[in-house]
User: What shape does this take?
Amino acid sequence: MKTFCIIVAGGKGLRMGTDIPKQFLLLNGKPILIRTLEAFLSYDPFIEIILALAADHFPYWKKLCEKYHFKDAVKLVEGGKTRFHSVRNALQTIQSDGIIAVHDGVRPLITSGFIDVCFKDAEKYKTAIPCIPVTESIREIEGEKNHRVDRSKFVLIQTPQVFSVKLLKEAFLQPYQKEFTDEANMVENMGIPVHLTTGIPENIKITNRIDLLFAEAFLLASDSKKQ
Assistant: This one.
């Protein structure tokens, strides 16, 4: 079955406190976004990748394409004002059926093996939403008060979120709502339950310097094990 992947990378990286957007920051000598793309190409060299990027980042991306030879491997589309609009722009370029993943450009520690798990679950269940358990105590805030909640009833959601192309296109026929923070919410809003796939803890979203330090340490440890 034909495979597709939409990479969402329109962030400004403000929480990182750098001039360069976080998806372009170097992670052990290579841009975060490049590492993310390489993981999907490692899973399937023929996967069709659509990258949603802010228009003012196009020139920088073209330079990276020349350096890392991504010119023919990735289709570029302009990102929108929200994740919803970015993914919709990318989805409109897909004309055939298949299985499609939507992944954050700043989750570079994803592995080809885990991508395979998500695609296989989506083929079986129509959806695959990776998640990991909550390991710390959590409390719910209600106005001036707060109270403990049972963490075993909650999970943390990751990407790639994987669907049949047909189902995801149907979901994007819905008008935008602020609650549509990810594709799982949109599918669920149509009355369709989503399948939760067990995620991997290292598949973090890099949003601040602590995350970047963790990713650097993780890659160094992984490289040393291979030697």
